[in-house]
UniProtKB/TrEMBL annotation:
The lineage of its organism: Bacteria, Pseudomonadati, Bacteroidota, Sphingobacteriia, Sphingobacteriales. Belongs to the fluoride channel Fluc/FEX (TC 1.A.43) family. One of its GO terms (cellular component) is plasma membrane. One of its GO terms (molecular function) is metal ion binding. It catalyses: fluoride(in) = fluoride(out). This is Fluoride-specific ion channel FluC. It holds the Pfam family CRCB. It comes from Pedobacter insulae. Na(+) is not transported, but it plays an essential structural role and its presence is essential for fluoride channel function. Keywords: Cell inner membrane, Cell membrane, Ion channel, Ion transport, Membrane, Metal-binding, Sodium, Transmembrane, Transmembrane helix, Transport. Fluoride-specific ion channel. Important for reducing fluoride concentration in the cell, thus reducing its toxicity.
Length: 124
């Protein structure tokens, strides 16, 4: 049981550090109302989860699954920041950006998972 917690924690730490680095890099080159860093992070995370779910449906490795899906992807993607950014957009009355961000994140996130699943399944 301790091994599983360590795997999740290690994956989460790596995912969180990559998220932080992505945010820093994005904010260096992009300054706008639209929260691009979180958008990119969540869409890429969805794509990666699709690939990993497809892989682990054929290759059972609970330890690696905990490390990569629960830990890394859980630490990399961020629903709480997405939600807070939506509230900030609402409060600053950027309603069109709010709608585009919310719908874009949900629709493209689901498509990214599907694409990740589809690409990996097609290669098996």
């Amino acid at each position: 049981m301790i091994k599983q917690f360590v795997l999740v924690g290690l994956g989460g730490a790596l995912g969180s550090m990559l998220r932080y680095g992505t945010s820093l890099l994005t904010s260096r080159y992009y300054v706008n109302i639209f929260p691009l860093a979180t958008f990119i992070i969540n869409i890429l995370g969805c794509f990666l989860i699709g690939i990993l779910l497809s892989y682990f449906s054929k290759n059972n490795s609970s330890g690696l699954q905990l490390l990569l899906i629960t830990g890394f992807c859980g630490g990399y993607t961020t629903f709480s920041t997405f939600s807070a950014e939506n509230i900030a957009l609402w409060q600053s009355q950027h309603y069109l950006t709010l709608i585009a961000y919310t719908l874009g994140s949900i629709i493209l996130g689901c498509l990214a998972v599907w694409l990740g699943l589809s690409l990996f399944i097609a290669k098996q």
